[in-house]
UniProtKB/TrEMBL annotation:
SUPFAM superfamilies registered for this protein in UniProt: HMA, heavy metal-associated domain
InterPro entries with a match to the protein in the record: HMA_dom, HMA_dom_sf
Cited Pfam families: HMA
Gene3D superfamilies for the chain: 3.30.70.100
Name by which UniProt lists this protein: Protein containing heavy-metal-associated domain protein
Length: 72
């Protein structure tokens, strides 16, 4: 299983509803959540054969900002 984390501007329940349809259409995603309590509004995604670009495109298509967080 792969996992990715992203900094976003998805900051409330309405935003999560707005992006849900877009994220759910990305192939390979098994689960995702947004930590709206974190100042960076972290989107965590898990699944198989995931591509960060596809996740980022889906969030951007929904009208939100997104930046991949790279672990050192």
């Amino acid at each position: 299983m792969e996992s990715f984390k992203f900094k976003t501007n998805i900051n409330c329940g309405s935003c999560i509803k707005a992006v849900t349809g877009f994220i759910n259409e990305v192939e390979g995603i098994e689960s995702w959540e947004v930590d709206t309590q974190n100042p960076d509004k972290i989107l965590s995604v898990e699944g198989k054969d995931l591509q960060a670009d596809r996740i980022m495109d889906a969030v951007k298509d929904a009208g939100f900002e997104i930046v991949e967080l790279v672990e050192c």
